[in-house]
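Methods — Computational structure assignment.
A single polypeptide chain was analysed. Its primary sequence is given first, followed by the predicted tertiary structure written as structure tokens.
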Amino acid sequence: MVVSQSLIDIVNSKVIECVTRILGQDKCSKINIPVYFRTNMKGIAGLAYCNPEKFKIELSTQLFLKNTQSFLEDTIPHEVAHILTEILFPDAKQGHGPEWKSIMKKLGVVPNRHHTYDVSSCFKNNHRYVCSCERVFSLSNLKHKKINSGKSSYSCPSCMSVLMYFPINDTYSNI
């Protein structure tokens, strides 16, 4: 699964468009936000790395290729907004707090914390778990066995709720 150069160019243009809309043309040229495509992200659509010395965005190759238009409209602005929040509000306490939401609104995007992409094809060899905030996690066979035997449990890093098993062949709806 490979993302074509023409799609990579479109993604990079979208990143520049988002940054320019918020910071203006002058400041945009001073900020570099490379985008990398990863094949091992499972149900995660994207991640923003907000280290001021090296910003970057990683996107799920599989989900991007299946949902390209939605990524351009929602996911890429979502991740860019995280980086812009770090630039404009370095003391912001919440990843999806009011500062991030205000940037999303200025980008013309609804500030949703989570995507709604069908991730079932991302979990072929692993076990799907969900948390209270509806994030989807892919756990290995070993972790799944530890949970089933009662030797371990895992929690969502965002909402801290214990992950619940949600078999791949079940239909996903709001929990």
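Note: The first helix runs from residue 5 to 23.
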